[in-house]
Structures are given as C-alpha cells and as structure tokens.
C-alpha cells in the first residue's frame, strides 16, 4: 500500500458540505426503503447504506469531464455525481422525468450530462466500458479519467480480470474503485475469494494499488485524488481498494438469514461513515438536526416531485430501441 | 470498375473510413502484425500504426466491452471477433450492454460500434470454429445484423455499419474471402435494411444468405435448365429485414425457398418463412421450403461435414419440391 500524501485534503468548510451530501444520500435511501415497502416502487432495489463515504469521497475528487460507471447499488454514486434527487426519485417511480426517463430504473441509472455512464445490473458489466472510455480519452489526448465502481463479488468475474489486464496493458487513464463490503449478495468474502486482500488481484496485472478506509470520507477523497493524478498523468490505471461496510441487506427486504445479526449492528456503531465524520468535525446535535432537516426536506420534495411526474405512454416502450 | 476480393473489400472499407476519420479504429486478436486470422487487416498496421490497429489479448468480453466504452465516448470502433463461435464469449457485452445501453439510458447514449466476425463450414475446422450464429443476434432488440455475400455488398454495408449510430453485428463468411467481384470506384454506402435481388425469375423465390447465396445462384442455373425460373434474393441485412422486397418477390413467383448455412431448426429462415406465410399467404402455391444445416454440431471428418451443411443441390431439390417435381 502506497502512502497517502498529506496534501490535497478537503477544507473544513467543504467537509461540512460532504457531511450534508452523505446525509442526503442516507436519508434518500431510507426513504427509498420506506416507499418500496409501502408498495410504491416497482422492481427491486439495492441500497448502499453504510457506503456513502466511497460515493461522495470518490466523486468529489473527480474533475469536470471525468466519468463514472456504477453498479446495481447505484443511488449514492448517482447523487454524488450530480444528479438531482428529484430526477433520481422520479426514475425509481418509473416517470419520464427520471434520469433514465423511465427506461432504466434503480439498476440502470444514467446521467450522461453529469458524466455518469450508468449503473449496471450485470456484475462487472461496466468495467470494460471504463477501459474503453479511458482508451478514447487517451487516443484523443484528453486529460480525462474514467472511473469504475464495483464490489468484492465482481473481482471473481471474467470482465474484471480482462478489463484490468487490458487497462494496464494499454496504460489507459482509468481508476478501478473496489467497494469491498465483504458480501457478494449473501455470500461472504471468505466463501467467494481464496485471498483476503483483494488488491493483490490488481498487483497481478502490475497495476498500482492504493487502499483506504472506505468509511473515512477524507481518506477516500485523498486516495482517489492520488489515483486520479497518477492516471491523468499518463502513468496508467490505478486500483483503489476501499474497505466498506454494508449496513443493510443485499436488496430491500432481504431478511439476511445468512448473516450474524450482531455484525451489522457492530459495524453501524463503529464504522458508520456519517457518524465518523460528524464526530471528527465535532458537529453538535443542534447543527446535525438542522442539516438533517434540510436534507430530509429535499428527500420529501423528491418524492412529491416523483409522484407528480408523468407516466410514460405504454407505446413509448418502442422508442429508443435504435438511434 | 475495379475488381476486389471479398477480403480486400472489407479491408478497403475499414482503411478508407480510417483515412477520413480519426474516430474510426480497429481492435481484435492478432489483427496487427499477423493481419488477422483471415488476413483481412493485412498491411493496415503499417499504414495506421498500433494505436489504431490494436492487437488485444484473448479477452473477448473486454475487447467487445472496451469497444463499447470507446463508442460511448464518441469513437467508432470496429472490433474483430476472430470466429463467430467466440461471439458467445463476447455475448454478455454485445447482448446485455451494447444492444441495451441506448434504451436503458432513455435515449441518452449512442453506441456506434461494429462487431465484425466470421464463420462458415467447408474446411473441416470442427464444431467450435465454423458455426453460423446469426439467429442468436437477430433475436436481440437494439442490434443491427448484417451478413453480406459479395465484395460490393460487404464493402458498402461495412461502410454503412461503421457510420451507423447503433451497434452492428457484421457477419462475414469464411469461404467467401477469396471470391472476386467488381466494385464501384468509390465506396457507395449500401443502406442497412435493403435486400438485393441477385437474379430475377418467375416461378420460385429463393431467399438466401452468406455462402448459400452463391449455392442458390448455382441451383437457379440448374433449375433454369430444367425449365424452372428462379429469383434469388439476398436480404444482406438480417435486422432490420427488408420484408417488402421479399414479400413482393414471393407475390410474383408464388413459391419460396429460404436457405442458409446455419442449422435449419429455429434458424433465421424460420422468421423469413413466417413473414412470407403471413404477408403472402393467399399468393402461395406451395409450402415455404427451408434449407439449412442438419441438427448436429459441425463434425470434423470432411464427409460428415459435407453431409451436415447444405449445398446447391439441396437448394435445387427444395426448388423442385415447390413446383411439384420429384425433389428428394
């Protein structure tokens, strides 16, 4: 593990904004759980409660023009990359005002204008796109970086190995962000991987690997900045291994019969990224409640926006099949 | 009009596009120094360099997916999948990703990528190097599928595929690379979705693709000597399908034979037969005949391979059956 440079930190004023953004994502996802259980949201959804620091820390570190590819657990990444909560919530309600205009849903969130090349419902499905996007940047001499998010489960699929190999071979400006929450759906990491340190996999391709506590948003930010600088300067891709926690189930409603009940509770007490930043900044109860009220209002407004949105016409299903 | 081989025609479309457009590049296994396993890209490395004639590792998922990613960022990559059989390895990226990205994004994305691939029996490569899998891909909304059978068509259609804003699966036939034909001096784009009538006739329409176009033309000659006038139509584009040309031909001849090298059962020809029976039912004087491979993997031994895949005589017999002659 390379040493993270002390410089390039977030100023304290911005850290408060980071706290607000992480709290917005948390409250948004809690609301999504609530509305799903109320039967208002079709399909099935995956929340990333506990992983807000990786979404916000990584996306804050990006420059304009940098792009991301996300996973099936995409709400946080999408908000952090700049999509308005109204547009995200409208998508979850299947409305034309949604960020994918009702064609995508929770697992297919796109916002090209904001550099979000999309969530992906196939594990590892977006990884080669990031290698290819970075190749396009390299061929055109553009100082842009393409960033892929993926989980520990994805490190076992072929696209992961093929995409990292190709990216390193061609030294493209890509950053591969592993959000290692130790669970592939219901399968714990010790059952799906023979090694405990998944960044070893990057080293097998000769790729620079950095590690950070994925619950510590400052560490995530600093590590990502370092990775981006390396990639942007033409030195090749970087693997960023974030040690994350999944505080809820794989999907909303997952009874988690496979998981020790104390594990999530203990992680919530010790590794909740929002609590960690709040304590670090010494945010008072009063200040926190004010922040909470502000983001809760935004979330409530997003539900109102979504419910007032327009249903697509059924025959709109035949649009956008071809360009 | 100059004469080019089918192989040279593919190369000419690629090279001409790359000369005029920095966004076009090719990537695939062994396409650079070696010039591709079929020699299609021979010499292109010298002209365009390794940045734009990219050898890739044996990683079909990543090479297909990286082409998609570059296309999403405004490039026009042409990915070569060495054998059609290996499209199964790239299928996740082609089927779940390329075909659906525009749709899932609600129209935000365009994915102007071409997946060139080739297959075809007749040289005993066995069961994993000669399949004809076009039926798998015509079934996927969001993909366009092309299968050209002549030098002129392969050049003009590849050009259109490169400049189409949709993902295109572009099938070539292994045994056609050496055939020669005249082509226009300058590349004339051939619209995707337009069939070609190779030969006009009065009694039977044969709708054929790939190698079977040539087998069908040979069968038509023989049928003509036996007094049966045969029209041969090559759809050239399998998705979208030029139903109008096919149906109007059948309405003229009142009989149809559908011929392809792929396995007959559940093949592309089944859809063509369905289109014909539905749109030209009252015009048909005979059941639609189908010609294709028998329901077996491709065997190695030449005598078995010859037995499994169709030839001109199989098309001829089908033609004769439609006119009540003693086809077997």
Summarize this structure briefly.
The complex is a heterodimer of chains A (323) and B (328). Chain A has a single domain (12-306), classed as Thiamin diphosphate (ThDP)-binding fold, Pyr/PP domains (Rossmann fold, 3-Layer(aba) Sandwich), CATH 3.40.50.970.
Identify the most extensive interface between protein chains: A-B, 44 and 44 residues
CATH superfamily of chain A: Thiamin diphosphate (ThDP)-binding fold, Pyr/PP domains
Indicate the overall shape of chain A. Answer: globular
CATH class of the largest domain in chain B: Alpha Beta
Number of helices of chain A: 12
* Binned strand content of chain A: 5-15%
Q: Estimate percent helicity of chain B.
A: 25-40%
The description of the largest β-sheet of chain A is: 5 strands, parallel
For CATH, the homologous superfamily of the largest domain in chain B is named as: Thiamin diphosphate (ThDP)-binding fold, Pyr/PP domains
Total count of domains of chain B:
2
The radius of gyration of chain B is: 19 Å
- What is the strand arrangement across the widest sheet of chain A? 1-2-3-7-6
Based on the coordinates given, report the CATH architecture of chain A.
3-Layer(aba) Sandwich
Structural class of chain B: alpha/beta
What's the pLDDT, averaged over the residues of chain B?
A: 97
As a whole number of angstroms, the C-alpha radius of gyration of chain A is 19 Å
How many beta strands in the DSSP annotation of chain A? 7
Helix content of chain A: 40-55%
- Unreliable segments of chain B (pLDDT under 50, ≥5 consecutive)? none
Show unreliable segments of chain A. 1-7
Q: Classify the beta-strand content of chain B into a percent band.
A: 15-25%
